[in-house]
Amino acid sequence: MAPTPEILSSASETDVSKTCTTYNLTPSEFHQLQTRASAAKATAYCPYSHFRVGAVLLTRAGIYISGANVENASYPVTTCAERVAFGKAITEGHRGFKAVAVATDISPPASPCGMCRQCIREFCDLDTPVLMFDKDENYSVLRLEVVSFACFQL
């Protein structure tokens, strides 16, 4: 059984400091991931579900790449925020990611869907942190190896 992620507060210096130490992030990187993921969800196109999701990737080179979900009346054509961000990153030539963050308008924090977990696994190491922010700026964080348990691999 997968562990239930702890819900932390981005307003707590102790929580943020512990997260940064554990996942090799600076406080500035943490806050940029949070701010940019939250801002990205404002660009979501979701007229059917009204479920906004923003995602941001931090490359090992220190570049932030964002994406938002893009819905379609034919739901299978919908693209999740994480996959939009990775599509943008990969087509711009970026490889090597330090962290992934997602933000939604619900609480508690939502984790990436199965398809997005598989996408993240394609491009990230198993120790990559996946930060999940909720509507109240609380967050959970897990390493990809936990989030993507038993993902498909060739």
TrEMBL record:
Residues at the catalytic site: 82 (proton donor)
EC number: 3.5.4.5
Keywords from the UniProt entry: Hydrolase, Metal-binding, Zinc
Domain CMP/dCMP-type deaminase per the UniProt entry, residue ranges: 28-142
PROSITE patterns: CYT_DCMP_DEAMINASES_2
Protein's GO biological process: nucleobase-containing small molecule metabolic process; pyrimidine-containing compound metabolic process
Uppermost EC category: hydrolase
A GO CC term assigned to this protein in UniProt: cytosol
Cofactor or coenzyme needed: Zn(2+)
Catalytic activity, as annotated: cytidine + H2O + H(+) = uridine + NH4(+); 2'-deoxycytidine + H2O + H(+) = 2'-deoxyuridine + NH4(+)
Residue positions binding Zn(2+): 80, 113, 116
Pfam family, one: dCMP_cyt_deam_1
UniProt-listed Gene3D superfamilies: Cytidine Deaminase, domain 2 (3.40.140.10)
Transmembrane segments: none
Superkingdom: Eukaryota
Binding site for substrate: 69-75
Molecular function, one GO term: cytidine deaminase activity
Purpose: This enzyme scavenges exogenous and endogenous cytidine and 2'-deoxycytidine for UMP synthesis.
Family statement: Belongs to the cytidine and deoxycytidylate deaminase family.
Protein name, UniProt field: Cytidine deaminase
Originating organism: Cercophora scortea
Lineage: Eukaryota, Fungi, Dikarya, Ascomycota, Pezizomycotina
